[in-house]
């Protein structure tokens, strides 16, 4: 029997986006509830996720209004834990991980390795204004781990769900030159990534993952671009004021 | 058919210890090869793990001398990836994770949460000389996530494998007062952890996990104590020289 599943998410958050991609691909029915991260509902931490972060899932229990979570549902958190959870739930109906242990290990290694290179480096670029080209080593790691064509480990899997939101958000930032970094440096890197033969594998991979319905239905480029542009203006003004 | 499995490990390393616990519990046949982390064999990075860390596994291919790894085996790395790999390999013969998706998510959440609180804090205590009592919040997180009795999620699982090596090493350090921290502060905290009713759950959990054969066969307390004591003397001397 399929139990009720409610996802607490936020359009802006790459960690939450991971779980939306996996849920869409799984075909499992679920409700989605947007959490405004700048004004979290006061019931969210005590009733859903004590760490007060998205994503979180309420699973099982009665079918209630997501804004009034039931104590009878199980609450789960941490985006990669949720990806594995979704893959476990849909294992027999729509596999989101290969069945071969070696391929599963490669999927998990892909996530661990790409995100450990990408995460904190990109944070520094976007929020502290480090040079955007600092992301290139992470892109090279990604390209080296990808097979010659297709997804991370054969069919689309939670490994792709885990990584795609970060590439997508980096592209929105760079394309719009919308980060704390020096003006012009984002667009310049974006053009390189879009044209240099060296990054052909990245482009093809991104075309593959972003061409899927799961992505189109869960990614809000204009919404993100607007927020990034506003935030970049604030960060750059703060930087100038400090000089 | 069971394929050959070779584990590259190091007695001193908690990340490697995780995989030894899981392999022992799995009942899978394997070879173990000790890597001297202070003098790694020159073939290790190019032929086994480009990141040059332990643990790593060579799986499949011909049954060769571990010091002459075959290009025909698959090489896998990252300790938590390897724990899931071992659990996948032994799923039908000796389950090392529960089968229920919610219980599996709780196991993974346990690891993620405890290690993210424990890892870097303990590193600061042991190597930079931060006050050992800084580990208490991580211990409280661990105690709060544990059920009233038994292991992290029912039967012993890879969640216990992931966490046990860190508790074991902290105890060796504190008991011997063997870290970069102020002399006496380790022993003092150790006595508190061994006697204060507040830490009864930690003590019982550690008695349970360390009482298993898998632990007794893979943990080398005297060896670790000796190394920690030597290293602490060096770190404390360096600290004094700086003052």
Describe, in plain words, how this protein is organized in 3D:
The structure is a homodimer of 243-residue chains. Chain A has helices at 14-26, 44-47, 79-89, 101-128, 136-145, 158-175, 185-195, 200-210, 213-216, 221-242; strands at 5-9, 31-34, 56-59, 74-77. Chain A is of the alpha+beta class and 243 residues long. In chain A, strands 2-1-3-4 form a four-stranded mixed beta sheet, covered by helices on one side. Chain A is globular. The relative contact order of chain A is 0.13. At the A-B interface, strand 4, helix 3 and helix 4 of A face strand 4, helix 3 and helix 4 of B. Chains A, B: This is GST N-terminal domain-containing protein. Chains A, B: Residues 3-94 form the GST N-terminal domain. Chains A, B: It comes from Ephemerocybe angulata.
Tally of contiguous helical segments of chain A: 10
Mean pLDDT of chain A: 97
**Total strand segments of chain A:** 4
- What portion of residues of chain A is helical? 40-55%
Radius of gyration of chain A: 19 Å
Strand content bin of chain A: 5-15%
Distance between the ends of chain A: 61 Å
Taken from the alpha-carbon principal axes, the silhouette of chain A is globular
| Major pleated sheet of chain A | 4 strands, mixed
InterPro entries (chains A, B): Glutathione-S-Trfase_C_sf, Glutathione_S-Trfase, Glutathione_S-Trfase_N, GST_Omega/HSP26, Thioredoxin-like_sf
Pfam families (chains A, B): GST_N_2 (PF13409)
Organism (chains A, B): Ephemerocybe angulata
Protein name (chains A, B): GST N-terminal domain-containing protein
